[in-house]
Amino acid sequence: GAGVSQSPSNKVTEKGKDVELRCDPISGHTALYWYRQSLGQGLEFLIYFQGNSAPDKSGLPSDRFSAERTGGSVSTLTIQRTQQEDSAVYLCASSLDRAFGFNYGYTFGSGTRLTVV
Amino acid sequence: AQSVTQLDSQVPVFEEAPVELRCNYSSSVSVYLFWYVQYPNQGLQLLLKYLSGSTLVESINGFEAEFNKSQTSFHLRKPSVHISDTAEYFCAVSGRNTPLVFGKGTRLSVIA
Which residues pair with B76 in a beta bridge? Predict the structure, then answer.
């Protein structure tokens, strides 16, 4: 697609439920990144993919968080048993490949605003 | 490990006045430096970046940033701001093999 597409744009869920957030990167971009933006915390790195593999998942906050990418395209970030502290904007980004991304920056999507009540 | 410090969480400034948004980084390796801008209810957009060469980099909308290796800084400046510059600005750093690390952001509010 023309840009990085994320869905849903907004999600309200009850504490304890599981949620799935979707990211569709720019066509042809092999690297994909997930960040979390919380009030006052800036952007926290969660995980990145090169192709379908995740060389760095060091930012995932707990084992309730997981992500996968299939077919080298769409990625899904899953949060199990959501907690109120998971409320944030989840941002996805992509780049041609990771070297390009690290050196020249990424293109971001508009994010999914998750609210856990 | 790399880190970024944005010293000011909020910066109010009158229209047509100059502004400087401060960014300091720490890294033990060569770095690449970025400024991103997030307008209200939008995603992040790359504003400018420093890779190598001239230490002064410019964006198309009048912002500039200067890489200062001795002070480990990459401050963002604009000589005259407009209402439309109201946004949140994020400084970021990466190494050759590491994802971007972002600061906590500076909210620039331009007052008419």
Answer: B21, B65
d(CA A97, CA A113): 26
Report d(CA A13, CA A54) in Å as an integer: 27
- Please tell me the distance from the alpha carbon of residue A74 to that of residue A6, in angstroms, as a whole number: 10
Helices (H), chain B: none
Which residues, other chains included, contact A26 with Cβ-Cβ below 8 Å and sequence gap of 6+?
A: A1, A2, A3, A4, A94, A107
- The residue of chain A with its CA nearest to that of B3 is A44
> Using one digit for the tens of pLDDT, what is the confidence trace for B3-46?
899 999 999 999 999 999 999 998 777 789 999 999 988 889 99
B43's CB contacts (< 8 A; 6+ apart) are: A4, A91, A108, A109, A110, A111
**Interface probe, candidates B98, B100, B102, chain A, greatest A C-beta count within 10 A:** B100
DSSP secondary structure string, B72-86?
Answer: TEEEEEESS--GGG-
Question: Rounded mean pLDDT of chain B?
Answer: 91
Whether A45 sits inside 8 A of B103 (CB atoms) is: no
